[in-house]
Structure prediction request, 469 residues.
Amino acid sequence: MKKNIFGYIIPLLLTIIFSGCFNSGGNIIKEIHIGLHNNNQLKIQIDVLTDEPVDAYAEYWTGNDSTNTMRSTTVKNATQHSLVLCNISPKTNYAYRIITIDNGVKKVSKTYTFKSHDLPLWLQEQFKAINTFPKLIPQQFKDGLILLNKNYAPGTAFLVDYKGQLRWYHTVDGMAYKVVHYTKDKTILALLGTNDDPTSYGRQILEVNLLGDTILNLKKGQGDFTQIIHHEILKNDKGQLVTLSVDKKIMDLSSVGGSKQDTVNSDGIIVFDSHAKKIWKWSVFDAVDPLKDPNILKTKKDWTHANSLNYDTDGNYLISFFNTGQIWKVDSKTGKVIWKFGKGGTVAMPAECDFTQAHAVHINQDGNLMFFDNGVKKQQSGVFAMKLNEAKQTSTIDFHIQLPKEVFNGRMGSAYMINDTSLLVCCSKRHILVLADKKGILLWTMEMAMPSYRAEFVRIDQLAPYLKP
Prediction:
């Protein structure tokens, strides 16, 4: 470990170069230091000191193939440049050169080399992929990455390719990644909690970019962030944070055999700005009276158990409840419940749509309501995509797949379309991901060393320029 020219500590991969770098047209670069960025084995940081303020970036490539170059971040109009290289593979030989631009004049350094380290033992052999039908795996899936999380401390968020190779990770000490979400800003937005917090429940919101730098870090107790949040963390179009929260109500349940000062635990939606100021709040208690539930004395400790939140195409909320087996659409401005889908709901369902408990509710690329069916009643999980007619309050099945009973997943889980014919399914409790077609045929599977709350697929265009296939 050695302190570099910018005053912080990084492990060195190469000897620091003090002799300068001779470019065409003159000696601009004085020093180059190279090490790990944020102590991450898949990110390399090159610190460059120049004689005068210039723009600078690094071009780098594996082995001797300089025709397939990648590019670092760019630091503009500075003499101290911290350039971060992503898309690094373990135990691989790399070459790089520094590009400086001064008043439109581009200068290229000579070529240097380094070899990346192996991954730490605790990150090795975390994922094992099996290509059952390799010729049927869509190219979109091969090009993209899968976002996963380890939900016990030290928590880790992972981006993994279809071969089971770890392509990106970010670790937090002392906390667990309870829920992770990839944003349109090319950041990882996460809910963190302690090992003592229940699965998918947390008390800290962390956002990092693909360089591993912290964008946002809010903790319970700051501003209006006073309630435990759980199961979901999203951004809206205004960049505000949208969360599911634990909502408690003290009420008189003596009329049904409870006490006069009883507590009912339910759920709500809270929207925060980036400073933890509350912008909007909604509660299940705003829509339903617990006294109308004949089983409230049995269910009061976790009455509804909301487990996912997303948006309809009109910007209103979709929220799924594990304990009631329903999906609701809620007006994002008024809080009015527009419809309820599921057993006892307002939307008529075909008899074949016999789901019990749902996770990862969302509108898929075809505009249909899609969700993972835990299938608790029949002990067989699956996926539904439903066409809803909101005006008529009716629905039809677009497609339904049933997973093999061997991967029955009674809690957590997700399912998202990859293209028109295939979907990625996460069976969290079974520590397994599957790529299936719409007939339910498994094209690919991946075993995980840990349970992930869900698995989000991130397309190649959402990763550029930081990560490539």
